């Protein structure tokens, strides 16, 4: 039942992206790879990290573990990186951008977070620079 409730909570949070609030005071423990609140409880929710008035990222957690869609921003407000986490690892397609907004790289990760498929790196003018296949 608890997993079902967490799943519904994530769907609700994901659907209400226009009302994403500033992240509370959270800390990441690199040893156990969990994000927690000051009282030690594991953080669950979707929130925005700011540095001053600049939006740095949109993050999501379930029970302290990186989960869902994440977006990182350049200081100029344009997207730097976007992708998904599941159970604390990168999964699926991740896109990286130049500060100009041009696509810089497209990478793929397996369900277990391993590099997979075709990775393409682009020059800022849009030409392909390199392609690497991970199989």
Assembly state: single chain
Q: Mind telling me the C-alpha Rg?
A: 16 Å
State the secondary-structure class: mainly beta
What does the largest sheet look like?
10 strands, mixed
Query: Low-confidence stretches at least 5 residues in length (pLDDT < 50)?
Result: 5-17
Beta strand count: 12
User: How many domains is the backbone divided into?
Assistant: 2
- What is the residue-mean pLDDT, rounded to a whole number? 90
**How far is the first residue's CA from the last residue's CA?**
37 Å
Count of helical stretches? 1
Estimate the helix proportion, in percent: 10-25%
Residue share in β-strands: over 45%
Describe the protein in words.
The protein is mainly beta. The chain has 2 domains: 1-68, no CATH class; 74-135, no CATH class. The chain is 10% helix and 53% strand. It contains 1 helix and 12 strands; from the N terminus they run αββββββββββββ. It has one helix at residues 2-15, and strands at residues 21-22, 27-29, 34-36, 45-51, 54-62, 65-66, 68-73, 79-86, 89-97, 103-109, 115-122, 128-134. Strands 1, 4, 5, 6, 7, 8, 9, 10, 11 and 12 form a 10-stranded mixed β-sheet that branches. Strands 2-3 form a two-stranded antiparallel sheet. A hairpin with a 5-residue loop joins β11 and β12 (128-134).
Characteristics of this structure?
135 residues; mainly beta; 2 domains; 10-stranded mixed β-sheet; two-stranded antiparallel sheet; flat
Write the layout of secondary structure elements.
Elements: H1 2-15, E1 21-22, E2 27-29, E3 34-36, E4 45-51, E5 54-62, E6 65-66, E7 68-73, E8 79-86, E9 89-97, E10 103-109, E11 115-122, E12 128-134
Parallel strand pairs: 1-4
Antiparallel strand pairs: 2-3, 4-5, 5-6, 5-7, 7-8, 8-9, 9-10, 10-11, 11-12
């Amino acid at each position: 039942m608890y997993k079902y409730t967490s799943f519904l909570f994530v769907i609700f949070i994901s659907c209400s992206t226009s009302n994403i609030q500033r992240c509370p005071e959270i800390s990441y423990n690199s040893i156990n790879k969990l994000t927690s609140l000051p009282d030690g409880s594991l953080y669950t929710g979707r929130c925005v990290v700011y540095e001053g008035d600049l939006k740095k990222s949109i993050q999501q957690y379930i029970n302290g573990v990186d989960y869902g869609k994440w977006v990182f921003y350049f200081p100029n407000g344009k997207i730097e990186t976007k992708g998904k986490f599941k159970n604390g690892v990168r999964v699926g397609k991740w896109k990286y951008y130049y500060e100009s907004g041009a696509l810089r790289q497209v990478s793929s990760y397996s369900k277990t977070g391993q590099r997979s498929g075709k990775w393409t790196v682009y020059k800022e003018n849009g030409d392909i620079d390199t392609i690497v296949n991970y199989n």
